[in-house]
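seq:
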Amino acid sequence: MIISYVHFAFAALFLLTLAYSSLFLFTKTDPNFSPTPEKEWRNFFYKLCGYIILASIALIAIIFYFDLDKNTSNPVFWLESLAIVAFGFSWLLKGETMLRDATEPTSAQ
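struct:
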């Protein structure tokens, strides 16, 4: 039983770190430049991915607290997977694999 609590704590910490990256680190913009329209779209998707990760953590906590993981569908596994995929999508956006800036950012004066 103690192992499940330790696993939950470290998994939550890991997923919270991913959510923090998506919500706060990836959305940063150089204050000397105004964000491009593509950057604004990327910021929207970063936040969406971060909130999906947080929702997954909350649902896992509910499942864990109420001991609802007794069936064979493994909801915790699927929620953890969803959180990881959401971060992966956010990471791909950060590398500008998708929604690459069409123009150079303009200086904000």
